[in-house]
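Spend some time on the protein that follows and explain the fold to me:
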Amino acid sequence: MSSYTNRPGFTGKSWFSQLKISEKTGFIALSSLRSILLSSFLLWGTAARADIGISPQVIETQVQRGQAQGTITVRNGDAKEFRARVYSAPFTYDAEKGFQLLESSPQDLTPYLQFSPRELQVPGSDERRIRFVVRFPPSLPDGEYRAMLFTENLEAIMQEETNTTTGVTFRTAIVPQVGVAVYVRKGNISHNLSVISARYNPQSNQVQLLVRNTGKASAILEGEWTIKKGEQEIYKGRGIDSTVITEAERYLTVDYANKLEPGEYQLSGNLGWGVNRTNKIPFSVKFTVP
């Protein structure tokens, strides 16, 4: 059984490789920059735009008789066609930093993952599909195996910006990438979630909830938050989907941007998962703003 997660508008998580070159009176400084953004329509700077969408954003599936399969759709929202290569890589979610690509992992899905095509050409305002199949050997231990399946544009987008104060011109080669998180589970496994604590991060001016997952399956959670100081309700809202990886912890950020006054607060609500987030874990924890 497969579970596909997607958001309206055909957007997906996107990764962009960037090369920045600064030029002034013959001087050239070269540096590399890699960033992670949450929308496939956002690039470094304000002028560049890459209308590459991917659906679904997340695939969760269970192997049946040692196999699993699925389809990913890549859409070109621009009038100009693009060519892209397809590849996969292991990943995790760090407690503090969030998404992290890995060189290797015991949960790496890539050795068992086959997909086609490995290169694709998408005409303007059109879409193409990538089909994948997973084959597990019988000797593979039960557990969750995961990988990001990336589609990377083979043609870089050039962007130029000039600092009006220094006169330095920055030329940036941007390579858009969109990725789908694929989770494949073998055996009768599940997550096991618990809320540990909450904290106020003065550097980012954010309230964060520490969640622990001691189970063998990752959980994609949506938080419903209420912040109170005494009997006064400060904020009530709903967060974005966040993944707490198997056998790990992660700080989930409450989407409240205003500065909190010093004092003791209570953060309560629910963490929802599953179809339409109907499964919920209630929580109520205190935190202090110094």
In short: DSSP finds no helices and 23 strands in the chain. Residues 247 and 253 are 20 Å apart (CA to CA). The first strand starts at residue 2 and ends at 5.
